[in-house]
Amino acid sequence: MADKDIRIIFLGTPDFAVASLSALLSANYDVCAVVTSPDRPSGRGRKPGMSSLKVFALEHKLPVLQPENLKDPSFIRQLKQLDATLFIVVAFRMLPEIIWSMPPLGTINLHASLLPQYRGAAPINRIIMNGEKSGGLTTFFLQESIDTGNIIFREETRISSSETAGEYHDRLKLMGASLLVKTVEAIKSDIVVTLKQDELIDEGVSLRTAPKIFKEDCRIDWSENCEKVYNLIRGLSPSPGAFTEIPLTGGENIYLKIFRTEIKSCACQDIPGTVMTDRKTYFNICCRDGCISILELQQAGKRRMAISDFLIGLSPSVLFKTS
After folding, report:
1. Contact between 287 and 229 (Cβ < 8 Å)
2. Superfamily holding 7-200
3. 74-83 tens-digit pLDDT
4. What sign for the dihedral angle of Cα 67, 68, 69, 73?
């Protein structure tokens, strides 16, 4: 069967999307425009900051659209005038039907989980936070309900017990770029055979979701078991970062973001949240069934650092409250 004409509008925002757009350009696909989020104030100066995808698109002289409202009639007219045959979405907002139903070949999405598991905005974080041993990627055609469309391809990968969300993200964005090119090639060659997600849901198996991460999701509960705390920390590392507030003897708290840890078996009977440290080499915090040894952290207002650097710089007047 003859190849289909492929003319792409690419929609995305973060660094995860850049790898996929780069792969499409390297494969010589015609990307006629990029749609990304509006510039937002960022940094201490609150200057408008461009998305990673916009920076890349401008470097490659691609037209960039940045609608505030995806249903804005002028934006819809712009999309129609571009006469694209395929829309591709990688890490972007939920699209209204008037957009995803527009191109004749449909709108496809690259999602960072093995759908139908982990539908939602934060699959990478949630998969690590839940201690999953494997994950992967899915390409699928968009439909009305979020992350429920018919599957084109899925690719599975193992997750190591020490891998952080950031490390997993960096692996997936490269795997995803290759999977996306494979998907577009299949559409171009008219050899796509899709699979309904319902066919992959085994009886009795519950579906896990991946809702957006909020600040309170990042607060460490030291009364949990070590494994749960350990997975929470690596699942939020480096961003947005798990945090805790350690009480001091003077009645104040010290605010810490924690990025890397180890589980330590110990026989301590201290209250969860109790700090044990020699103030030189180790900084452990008690959980329900053992201790978490902090390896990398960041104190409010300071840089991320190894625990040894944190302890060296710790004032002798800072005394941790004990049980």
Report:
1. yes
2. Formyl transferase, N-terminal domain (3.40.50.170)
3. 999 999 999 9
4. negative
